[in-house]
């Protein structure tokens, strides 16, 4: 009877005792007691009264350590000489590895990550003092949490976050060949564990190079297998401007019926050129046509560059019946054979030009011809030099005296632009 009371007292004590966790061995210890009947099938004693015993992982009951749930039957001798059979369900807390911290393994740059303990427990305690089931973190590292089950057993869980190390190292942009065209491109060099994906707004692809882009600003994105993304604004510059007339010399003035070569000065070598029909135009496919103007008109040319770009440009010519000379507004003495010299183009009523002088913005005379010479005389041409040196680009003032066929004289003056 004393043994039975002692056994009952020990059982009651174990039902409310929760030893600390111990490090698990490779295999649970063997049952060495002669009274242990581990071979009993618990299904064969379903109707038999059994006692439920809760233990922490590695806890002891009746002198034995348990690391997994089991069903135990013990034979106990009584004072009457009869054996007493006792049945125990041993329930071990944390007897498997089904408890863990769920969350990403890689932390994306500039983002947060939620770490969440799997399963419901009576308590949670993270290293930073948080007692919630989940923890939001914003930096890589190893995070530990101690969980407590309803019986009081504790177990430490951990989760490690590594940085993504995803970054854009360099980008390169190529401008389109033609203004308004889509022959531009972008290339990107990125660092990070791959395979990486790249996008500029048309969907992710495996290559870090994009063709057929117009000029403009693009949002370049790079993504790694974990879904981390970095981005950068990249500009594809506009195509270089193409023109047939100098931007500062797209209009002029001429006298009535005055033959005048149009001041074509392309910044490319035209592969072909065509002119729209206009009054007084002597050809429709030559590079520098001559115009004998009878009224104001726009002269429109369309040319094709070696790269296949189509360039359209316009020169506007105003005809003044009482204005005896055409004055080019700009010239570019750069040695390319186009518009390299500046000169006056008089009408048929002008017999000579005299006192021609050109001054810079400070009033210094850069070119002067005092004698009255025939209008096409070479000494009336300025090559853009001053005192033997190249004159600086910019505006210059001109003035001249025109000797007309009726014996009268008239003066002309204005501004011209020297371009380099």
CA distance, first residue to last residue: 120 Å
Number of contiguous helices: 1
Count of β-strands: 33
Widest sheet: strand ordering: 26-33-32-28-29
Structural class: mainly beta
Instruction: Please state the overall shape, judged from the principal axes of the Cα atoms.
Output: rod-shaped
Output mean pLDDT.
83
Biggest sheet layout: 5 strands, mixed
Radius of gyration: 49 Å
Q: Determine the fraction of residues in helical runs and give it as a percent range.
A: under 10%
Beta content comes to 35-45%
Q: Are there runs of 5+ residues with pLDDT below 50, and where?
A: 1-40
What structural keywords apply?
mainly beta; 420 residues; five-stranded mixed sheet; disordered N terminus; single chain; 1 helix; 3% helix; 44% strand; 33 strands; four-stranded mixed sheet
